[in-house]
Write a structure and sequence with these properties.
The complex is a heterodimer of chains A (240) and B (137). With 240 residues, chain A is an all-alpha fold. Chain A has one domain. Chain A contains 11 helices and no strands. Chain A is flat. The mean pLDDT of chain A is 94. Chain B has 4 helices and 5 strands, in the order αββαααβββ. Chain B is globular. The termini of chain B are far apart. By secondary structure, chain B is of the alpha+beta class. Chain B has one domain. In chain B, a hairpin with a 5-residue loop joins β1 and β2. The chains are: A mainly alpha (240), B alpha+beta (137). The interface between A and B is large, with 52 and 48 residues.
Amino acid sequence: MNLESCIRFTEIFLAIAFMQQSIEHFSSIKQERRLFVTKFIYSTALLVAALISATTLSKWILLILFINRLFILKYFQGPYNGGSDSMSILILSVLCMSRFSTELEWQVYAFGYLALQLLMSYFIAGSVKIMNPDWRNGKALQDLFEFSAYPSSESLRKLSSQATLLLILSWAVILFELLFPLALIHQTSLVIALLLAFCFHLGMSFIFGFNRFVWTWLAAYPAILWFHQHYSSVLGMIWH
Amino acid sequence: MLQILKLLIPALIPSWRFFYEIAPSPRIEYIVSNGNWQEFRPRSQSVSVIESIKNIFYNAYWNEYLYLINCAEKYIITPSPHCYREIKERIERELQNSAEIKETSKFQFRLVFVHRDKTELNREVLFTSELHEVKPK
């Protein structure tokens, strides 16, 4: 995947993620709805521009979406949906920087940064969990199901009594997140890791209702695929 | 401008410390006139597979609930008029659309935090709002 294809795929997936987010606000109050109808219209325009490779048009649409995103940040006084908002703002900023930069070097830096942030999103999440004894003995996951605000139904709370299952799940999550950077060893391992990561986000959507993470993280995957290809020789030297 | 930068920077340099600890968990409860306290948007008993698949594409109701939970957490740490207004107005809007309100009534909300104390779960009311008026639509 060359950098231009990576930028286009990122635009396509981010446009879809933004359209999905926007639709969820269509029945809100007028002021909020206005912000998200604007976002939906320009996200649709971005999708079309990316599909027909209209790069100059994409550039200006991305700028409008960035300004719209600032208004949304101000409206909610921060992110509306935690980590998924952070990731979508990061991807949008990287796309803006890439499209407005005339130097290839800066586009490489921007997408390199996004790829590293994607790696960190798994690795740091795993690092903080393994350092917490409650995660290592399965208690944290037990608490998450028993009394946190996140399980999307009451029946899921019953899982808190399945101590062995939760211990296995805790370690599965910790190891997957911690070992994610090792997937860069080979393109096949990276594709498998991304498929697993996508399934992980689908699972989180089923259990905790975190549906926006599915679409937003998907939009960051082209960056890591490009990063692997771009730096495969350097990465190969590190691993061997 | 400075305020927007303050909101933007954490998104550009995120911390990614998802669930590093399971903190006391907020619940938003409300009471109308002389009724009983009840949980705002109690979760459903179960969610079917079809519903879960649909939720991947559209989960507005749940995401708004998660946003309000976040507002409740932020309000307890640093009370701000924004978080208070968001919780109050979204409860008010839901009450206006419900059959619960037939005439102009008063409502109040409170923030309850559930946490584990050794082996038991404890509920603690950390904030109770003032009375607000709600009119039927």
